[in-house]
Amino acid sequence: MISSIIFIVLFLGSSIFFYLNSKKIRRNILLGKDISITDNKGERLKTMILVALGQKKMFTRPIPAILHLFLYAAFVITQIELIEIVFDGVTGQHRAFRPSLGGFYTFIVSFIEILSVLAFIGTIAFLARRNLLKVPRLVKSELNGWPKLDANIILIMEIILISFIFMMNGADEVLYSRGQSHAENLGDRTFGLAISSYLGPLIYGNMPDAGLHVIERIGWWGHIIMVFSFLNYLPFSKHLHILLAFPNTYFSNLKLKGQFDNLFEVTDVVKPNFDPAYQPVLDPNAVIKFGVKDITDLNWKNLLDAYSCTECGRCTAACPQSITGKALSPRKIMMDTRDRMEDVGKSMDKNGGTFVDDGKTLLGDYIKHEEIWACNTCNACVQECPVNIDPLAIIMGLRQQLVLEQSSAPNELNGMFSNLENNGAPWQFSPADRANWINEN
Amino acid sequence: MSNTTIKVPTMQEKIAKGETPDILFWVGCAGSFDDRAKKITKAIVRILNHVGANFAVLGVEESCTGDPAKRAGNEFLFQMQAMQNITVLNGYDVKKIVTGCPHCFNIIKNEYPELGGKYEVIHHTQLVQQLIDEGKLKVQGGAFKGKKIVFHDPCYLGRGNNVYEAPRDVISKLDAELVEMKRSKANGLCCGAGGAQMFKEAEKGNKEVNVERTEEALSHNPDIIAVGCPFCNTMMTDGVKHFNKEDKTKVMDVAELIANANDL
Fold it and tell me: Can you tell me whether residue B104 is helix, strand or coil?
């Protein structure tokens, strides 16, 4: 009875806490400009199923993809077991679904156990890769401090969680074989769990019943507390990608990567000169800002991108400028955008929902001009991202701000602009000579 | 390359004669002004002349598409250029365009329509592929038989527009050995020119992008690095010079390979 109350309090508490923090993330994302993405629902659904659920883009690197699949599959399938754990927790029963599900119960829990072992292997491999092997994309400077700790915390939580599952199931298997388990006795001697029916006796076979009951309870409570903790850790962590990968891939850019958006604010100004019949999109009295200075100039999809990033660095590993030691790292662009959103969000929390200007902006204080001007706009980062994040869209917005609002492009580019304006070519050639090649030898 | 005189009618001349060209050849700034790229332009013209294509160029009426301005963030200048070009193109009622540059190809194909410029746009490697498929152009392997060719994907042709096979199909007709770099097709590495980097010094780092890319291409010890973009051509040529390999390895456009093979 008391344990049911504790469970219900924990369950509700963690659900409410998660809900509140999720609402903050939603609010932060909606700080972005509104855009409408309602087209091609079928293709969007297909993209989400292939890229998020099917992890299609992960498989360009097969080994990490398989290890990641272990963790992912364990994560997804384990949720089934939670149904029983919550039911047991609330009603004070033990393995309540086993009598009615029978062999199917054994199958499901065994399946989860096997996935948990695979996930355990994957987790150890990921920890080793991050901390011992020093894979270049996982030791870049933008990961120093919190991002590196965040990654390790997630992996260690994973290991603890899996360990609790096997404490719970292993101790219970031994107890059941002695007829001492709190699970309903169905006249057999074992749950028949794929791993614990062997591992349990091996580790706990010689322990007295009283000790086993304690271990089983530590495993059960430890497991569910870890699940609640994990859930509530997500909004503060890069690990949020496990949830946001789905909406983020659904709202993917479906256009060709070479096609960049035309700024309609500019079209409004330019087109009437050529087409008197053109009807401007914007109110003629509206104050127009060009490009991206801060997160509120980005759209909500750019901001969703930033929250969906798990900092894997595939973008950076493929970026020609990152590879050659320049300051630009597409991953850092996404991390900076998220950091800025978080800082703005925290200011809003502190000041009753209004942002108090801190004198900072995404452009300059988080992302340096040097990074923005290094980009080749080659789309390698966009191609690589396993959850269809588009760092290039943000970089382009920042460039537009620098050129159109601050007139602070590098000098050589200003030279190119004036050539283009005066001669119709990026170099200083006369437009009258444009066809000279025809008669040259 | 033979010395046959090339025939390059301008749109104005065609219209004056009451003719309507089937296709407009968009030469581009590099193709018009850069000495190296002009050779590529002429190779494309030789192919067009060889198959008796009814084409024209804009000549002095052509102006930059606005691509370098757009990628550098100068949307105003881009849209001014675009509107100016669209006015000319629509004035001639142009339906189909072939470009000698993937950047012109991408921007006219993808970013002009919204501004009122709607055309069927193909890159010159796609045109050559079509001509071969239609049987209008027969490719003789000849000079390139047994040569090792590595193809470098231009970002705005490959990743930007998913055109990977046209240049490869064309090269495969040369009886040469086509080698793929590890970073190719969707995973191709930029030559370093894109995003208006062509027009500025690189930011501070420890290597030039074109050196990184050329190093990868040269690791296959090719006779030819084939490209489909005048800017990639410049970057890769500089890279080959950086490694002092210009005697062994030539950087050539796919159009030049075909024109040379056929001795046009």
Answer: helix
Per-residue pLDDT of chain A (441 residues; tens, 9 = 90+): 789 999 999 999 999 999 999 999 999 999 999 999 999 999 999 999 999 999 999 998 899 999 999 999 988 888 888 899 999 999 999 999 999 998 999 999 999 999 999 999 999 999 999 999 988 899 999 999 999 999 999 999 999 999 999 999 999 999 999 999 999 999 899 999 999 999 999 999 999 999 999 999 999 999 999 999 999 999 999 999 999 999 999 999 999 999 999 999 999 999 999 999 998 888 878 888 899 999 999 999 999 999 999 999 999 999 999 999 999 999 999 999 999 999 999 999 999 999 999 999 999 999 999 999 999 999 999 999 999 999 999 999 999 999 999 999 999 999 999 999 999 999 999 999 999 999 987
Question: Does a structural domain hold residue A79?
Answer: yes
- My answer on whether A224 and A322 are in the same domain is no
Quick one: A340 and A203 in the same domain? no
Tell me which chain B residues have a C-beta less than 8 angstroms from the C-beta of A400. Answer: 73-75
Fold designation for B11-130: Rossmann fold (3.40.50)
Task: Say which residue the tokens 């509120």 belong to.
Answer: A296
Render A295-349 in DSSP notation, one character per residue.
GGGSBHHHHHHHHH-----HHHHH-HHHHTT-S--HHHHHHHHHHHHHHHHHHHH
A377 closest CB neighbour out of B6, B195, B213: B195
Same domain, A283 and A214: no
- Given A225, A249, A273, the domain boundary residue is A249
Please indicate, yes or no, whether residues A302 and A415 belong to a single structural domain of this protein.
yes
Indicate whether A56 belongs to any domain.
Answer: no
A404 CB neighbours in chain B (<8 A) are 73-76
Do A123 and A270 belong together in one domain?
no
- List the beta strands (DSSP E) in A111-176: none
Q: Whose CA is closest to A280, among A262, A268, A264? A: A268
Q: How many CB atoms lie within 10 A of CB B208?
A: 17
Q: How far apart are the first and last CA of chain B?
A: 6
The total domain count for chain A is 2
Contact between B231 and B103 (Cβ < 8 Å): yes
- Residue A197's domain comprises 2-30+61-249
Q: Under an 8 A CB cutoff, do B207 and A325 touch? A: yes
Which of B32, B87, B210 to mutate against chain A (most A CBs within 10 Å)? B32
**B251 by DSSP, 3-state: which?**
strand
Residues A407 and A393 in one domain: yes
Q: From CA B194, how far away is CA B29, in angstroms rounded?
A: 15
Q: Could you tell me where in chain B the CATH 3.40.50.1860 domains are found?
A: 11-130
Find residue B177's DSSP bridge partners. Answer: B148
Q: Which residue of A has its CA nearest to B46?
A: A438
Nearest to B111 by CA among A264, A119, A31, A12: A264
Architecture of domain B139-261: 3-Layer(aba) Sandwich (3.40)
Query: Is there a domain that residue A53 lies in?
Result: no
Domain endpoint, select from A194, A226, A249? A249
Chain A neighbors of B114, CB-CB under 8 A: 262, 267
> Does residue A66 sit in the same domain as residue A201?
yes
